[in-house]
What does this fold into?
Amino acid sequence: MSKYAKALFVLALALTFAVPAFAETQNVKVSGSLDVYAFFRDTYDLNDDNDRGVLPVGGGAGGGTNAHKSEGDEYWMGVTQVEVSADLTDNVSTVVNVINQRDWNADQHSTAGAANGNTGAEFDITLDLAYVQMKEIFYSPLTLTVGRQDIWFGRGFIIGNNNTSWDPQGTLAANEYSTTTAFDAVRATLDFAPWTLDFVYTKIQENSHDPEDDRSVFGTNVNYKFAEYNAVAEGYWWTEADRGTLATTNAATNGDSRTSDTHTIGGRVQFDPISQITLGGELAYQFGDYAQTVTTERDRGAWAFDVFGTYRWDYTWKPELTLEYVHFSGESNTAVSTDEYNSWNLLYRGRFYTAYEDFREVVYGTTDALDQSAAQNSNMVQIKGAMKPLDDLLLEAAFSWFWLDEDVATRSDEIGWELDLQATYDYTEDVSFGILAGWFVPGDFYTSPGDDTAADIVSSVKVTF
It folds into this structure.
């Protein structure tokens, strides 16, 4: 056989395998979004006398510098996403989403307040989603999803948002607006309608590649949908095994990592007794071990619950009113101790109720040394109303009141109250404009000078394609 004939044979053989490979892709879809935010935030540390701008939790310089001091921050933020999804044969599909999120040409600051210039990562593209989903794999009710994926269960009270993946490149000041909320996970879903069973394993932090400094989450969620009253019930058990927080220090002490295990068990019910009313509740309990220091371990014992009711009027403007009560248990003894530790672990909650309070001492710091994270030791009662005076205009208002579960020192238990107002206008099916205004008024827990009102105003334009 001549060399030309051999070349043609090899080419024909390659095409034989290549053509069916390309034909396996049944459908490819490209989509994305462009979001732009404008922020004005004032007195976020609750201290009118502190002129360093909004402070990140744990300290730092905030948005201000020693040369340009301000009680608040004003800046713009942009989020750009491009997603490619492909349907393959045999019920296999893939999704890849890349993203750029950044404050517009913002200086990054050291903890001393000096500007370091624009971050080198400002225009970088990072991976948000990358997973493959295989339906009816091995067994017809089974769906397997592997890779970086969004995970949300129920109303997001326990699992819904990977807060450790917020702002991976350090380009945002408002981390709660980060779009990178996905988990690197393996998820198996068994659909026995009306039953759905989910089993999930996710790696939160690998650190080094040995198992002594990992942080992982695994668990199961069981959901049942009733045939009447739009009713649903679910139960779950989630475990966070955290060996990473104290790994470095502890390894130098005894060569073994101290593990903080948080087991969360709970359940949720929700139903519509009549078409105009929705009632629901969720109760969860945490137990396990809390490694407070390298040598001190405390037993966990914490509670959380969420009870709500919504009434919808059958009017043209579609008004509705929701009353909600949320509780996260707290700990009065935060000193090193062997007592049971009763503070709630935020874990990976996806649902947030307010513009400011949910993120106090979680994302943003105050100047009060006794202030605790808003994700624990807190009670909230919220009244929220919404209406649509126009088909493309949604108006929302929420009033929330907060108080401590356990007293801190000799302080009052009154955390304060917050008023949030929001309007969303759908200019077209693809473009929307929004404005959010929120005010948090500190209660008697806070003392002068750290008891001033925090203000938050955020406007936005969002485009999807």
Observations:
- Confidence is low (pLDDT under 50) at residues 3-23, 250-255.
- The helical segments are 3-23, 247-254.
